[in-house]
Structures are given as C-alpha cells and as structure tokens.
Amino acid sequence: MDRIVVDGMNVIGSRPTGWWRDRAAAALELFGRLQRLAAATGDDVTLVLDGRPQPDLPEGDHPGVRVLYARRSGPDAADERILDLLADEPEPSSIRVVTSDRALRRQAERLGAAVDGATALLARLDQLAG
User: Which residue among 11, 51, 71, 125 is least enclosed by CB atoms within 10 Å?
Assistant: First the structure.
C-alpha cells in the first residue's frame, strides 16, 4: 500500500482534455479515477485541489480518497498545502507526491518524500480503466 498525495490541478492540467472549460468537472473526474485506484490497490490517496471547496466534492474523507483544498488563493496555493502536509508528517518518506511541478518536486524531496510525475499516475489510471 502506498501513501499518495496528488497535486490535483497539476495532474489535471498535464493533458489538453479541455479541462479549462469546466474545472469542477475535471476535478470530479480525477477524484473518481483516484477512488478506483484506491479500491483496486488499497493505496491511501489524498487529492489536493486549488480553489474553493466544491459543493459536490467537499473537503474531507470520502470512500478511498481524502480531499483537501488550498488554504488560500493564488499561485502555488495547493503546493503550500502539500508541503504543510509533508512538514507535519512524522515519516514523510512514507509519502509519494504526484506532481510535474519542478519547484514542488524539489521541496517535497528535500522534506524526504518520493515524487512521481503526473504522466506516471495518469498511465496507471489509464491502465486501471483498461
């Protein structure tokens, strides 16, 4: 079982799927795919999103996935929430952060976390969808 923290908008934005037309729907789609991953693998998944909490996807624990939102608006807000999670974690080396953001990657690795790019997670999710 892996502990995975997903930089949600970074992963969503890594493919030109038209996500920018409906960010809320894109977040819900990624959330659903992460739920299927957690169900199939037993992974402990946390999804961190930018923006205000969505009414249909509130912050908190959901089946298979914990959802968190950035505490503020603006650039790197979700990154800050992810780094706070790592800093508060007694064993940050037990967490795998998923992001393609180079600055977040460097900071997460400095705190002891492993980091995978968005492409690796999306390939895994695609494989699950089969």
Answer: 71
